[in-house]
Specification:
The chain is α/β, with parallel strands linked by helices and about 300 residues long. Helices cover about 35% and strands about 20% of the residues. InterPro entries: ATPase_NBD (IPR043129), ROK (IPR000600).
Length: about 300
């Protein structure tokens, strides 16, 4: 059996665990537990542990590393959440030793606990897409998660980039000023999420519809609904272009719930980003798990080197 990494993707209402084969870069098995972010710390950690053990059932001894994808703000080095709006029970709690204690003797060779590494979920979405697509060391990739909000990750040379002149602070685009007269005022997230589609649909159709309903109308041939998606794609591409040029991106990957309608707006994004390959996510909800595994594998390789 080849070496594996245990990956966790922590969300506001659930946690997903996956056992990732480090040779094939595929997820062998997943497990999911529902648990709300407002639950006490012990309840949250118990759910994470249950999902992890189910995902590792029968293969736990093959696990050589553990990676955890978490929303931010989060101090990955110390393993402490800095969120106040979510996970109040975990605020400034040292999670690494608490999770390790629950997994000790059940995950890892000879009863040890592999090192646990943490990473931002949007960053690891981007890293997972890069890693599972062949891990080209020359690639410069931007990953966006389009859902209730906007998440972003920048990957260059197989590493997540969160600082420097060619990326926004922390690698986070959501709160960057839009500042484009063609698109409108506000911040990027105002023009790049499900709420944006609802607003554009209301302007076009005269009624506010959930993005998924608007997409169905567009797929059924509604001219105004299709125009709303084209406007969304043009706006997204226009606002992303300065950052794609600054970063020197050759690939832009769109994930999140909105990306299921990629065919309706993706071509407009691509037209606004000449020189970039713009594609839909290939791994979707598995991408953060793959990214967490890649992060963990890189950390271990660095130790071994």
């Amino acid at each position: 059996m080849s070496a594996a990494a245990l990956a966790l993707d922590v969300g506001g209402s659930h946690v997903t665990a996956g056992l990732v084969d480090l040779d094939t870069r595929q997820v062998r098995r997943t497990a999911r537990r529902s648990v709300h972010h407002s639950a006490p710390a012990d309840t949250l950690l118990d759910a994470w542990t249950q999902a992890a053990l189910e995902a590792c059932a029968g293969d736990g001894q093959d696990t050589v590393q553990i990676g955890v994808a978490v929303p931010g703000p989060f101090d990955a080095r110390s393993g402490r959440s800095q969120m106040r709006h979510k996970f109040p029970g975990l605020y400034d709690v040292a999670l690494r030793p608490l999770l390790a204690a629950r997994l000790r003797g059940q995950v890892g060779p000879q009863g040890t606990v592999p090192e646990i590494v943490f990473g931002n979920d949007a960053d690891l979405f981007a890293l997972g897409e890069w890693w599972s697509a062949g891990a080209d060391p020359r690639a410069r990739l931007i990953g966006l998660t389009l859902g209730t909000g906007l998440g972003s990750g920048f990957v260059a040379g197989g590493r997540v980039v969160t600082s420097g002149a060619d990326v926004p602070p922390g690698g986070e685009l959501w709160n960057m000023p839009a500042g484009d007269p063609q698109v409108g005022p506000g911040i990027l997230e105002d023009h790049a999420c499900g709420r944006t589609l609802e607003r554009l649909g209301e302007e076009a159709l005269g009624e506010r519809l959930p993005a998924v309903v608007l997409a169905q109308r567009a797929e059924d041939g509604d001219r105004l609904a299709r125009a709303a998606f084209r406007q969304f794609g043009h706006g997204l591409g226009t606002l992303l272009r300065p950052w794609a040029e600054r970063f020197g991106a050759d690939t832009v990957v769109l994930g999140g719930s909105v990306s299921w309608a990629f065919g309706l707006f993706g071509p407009e994004v691509a037209r606004a980003l000449p020189g970039c390959q713009v594609r839909q996510s290939r791994a979707f909800e598995l991408a953060p798990l793959l990214g967490a595994a890649a992060l963990a594998h890189a950390a271990r390789s660095g130790q071994d080197g």
